[in-house]
Amino acid sequence: MVVKPARQRFFIPHTAYSTMNTKPIHRRGFLQGAACLAGLSLLGSQSRGFQSAAVPTAKPDVLLSIVSLSDAEKLARTAIPEASFEFLQGGVGDEFTLRWNQEKFQEIRLNPSVLTDLGNLDTSQNLLGCPMPCPVLFAPTASSGLFHPEGELAVARGASATNTTYVLSTLSGTSVEEVAAATRSPLWFQVYVQYDLALTKDLIRRAEAAGAKIICLTVDSPVPGVRNREERARFQRPPHIGLPHVAKRREPGMFTLDRVIPIRLVWSEVEELIAYAKVPVVLKGIMNPDDAEKAIGVGAAGMIVSNHGGRNLDTVPATIEVLPRIAEQVAGRVPVLMDGGVRRGTDIVKALAYGAKAVLIGRPYIHGLAVGGAEGVAHIQRILLRELRMAMALLGCKDLAAINRSVIWS
Ligand SMILES: Cc1cc2nc3c(=O)[nH]c(=O)nc-3n(C[C@H](O)[C@H](O)[C@H](O)COP(=O)(O)O)c2cc1C
């Protein structure tokens, strides 16, 4: 079978704003909400929020039309080339898991409690030594330059403006050193193991030297999943987007019809890498309680329940379904985080109620990036913080510690 070379679609990101269909929208009844999103919390002084002047809070008009994460997704579709959008949105196979990640959140009902003293509503915590005003991190995502000319630098600035922890991907187009210089908030570095374990160790040292506080070792991807949507769109990473952390390119044979070559990574090597790292190592991609136990056994400082955003193995459960089992197995020995399908403040509450210390978002901050660069990224995080505060207040939870199974209707 001959695979045709992908049709290259060049992205001229500067056109993202000008070509976008931005009708003058419902401005009037809307400004109050927009002001809230611009940083003026509805819960005002009762809440500790994001404090930063790094990104101005005045938004381009387009951001005023984004009041929920799904609004940003719709606008992102028009802001970037179709093949890039398909790469971003796509899951694996028939995309059951991709859909379930969001749907299973929607099936969980909440159980509010009224007349709680909500003074000092507080969404902050310290996680693995990193202060977080909001329990939402930016998940590692490859090649952000596909979506905005400033790529990972814009994400870093948006993270900095909202004091959000950014987990930079091994497959980023911008170096960890440059990204570290662009953010004041905690930076984690995601490691994809390289063919040679020595190269992986070099990458860990490099990230540590640049200031990464945590190494996030992705353990769920010996091969990529069957990304049919990407294949149908003939997606290819444009050559101008580099891979500054990948010394040896992955074996291209993995992507052909007749060769599937897994990258080697086994528990003993994970243990070796954890012992080698000077900073704590969190394992990303744990979906099985037995693996959670092994992760603790090899010294992981934490773990992320993740199915790679529905991009690896189709028909595995949604992460919110798996989370309670992992949390029960771990029983508080190390922090458990989760990602996949988080789109609302109520989703964050549900994940925390099921035992997560924090969640990560992937696609949503990229939607913000595509539409509004650093400000768009910050805007997404502000929306989530506002929704989280509202959900907590309406549930009767004054801080993250108050979120437990009692907020779930059963
Ligand atoms: C475009 C894209 C690129 C990604 N690249 C990586 C990556 O380089 N490393 C990694 O560990 N996970 C990667 N992921 C998975 C995310 O870290 C995360 O698990 C997932 O996006 C969470 O689901 P959500 O998009 O529904 O929030 C990627 C996801 C997307 C959508």
Structural class: alpha/beta
Number of structural units classed as domains: 1
Question: Looking at this structure, what is the CATH superfamily?
Answer: Aldolase class I
| Spatial shape | globular
First-to-last CA distance = 53 Å
Instruction: Please tell me how large the radius of gyration is.
Output: 20 Å
What summary fits the major beta sheet?
Answer: 8 strands, parallel
Distinct helical segment count: 15
Named CATH architecture: Alpha-Beta Barrel
Would you write up a description of this structure?
The chain has helices at 15-18, 31-37, 61-64, 69-79, 82-89, 96-106, 151-161, 176-182, 197-210, 228-232, 267-276, 289-297, 319-330, 345-353, 363-395, and strands spanning 125-127, 130-132, 136-138, 166-168, 187-191, 214-218, 281-286, 302-305, 336-339, 358-361. It is α/β, with parallel strands linked by helices and 410 residues long. The chain has one domain: Alpha-Beta Barrel (TIM Barrel), CATH 3.20.20. The strands form 2 sheets. The protein has an 8-stranded parallel beta sheet. The chain is globular. The model is unreliable at 1-49 and 51-58 (pLDDT under 50). The structure holds flavin mononucleotide (FMN).
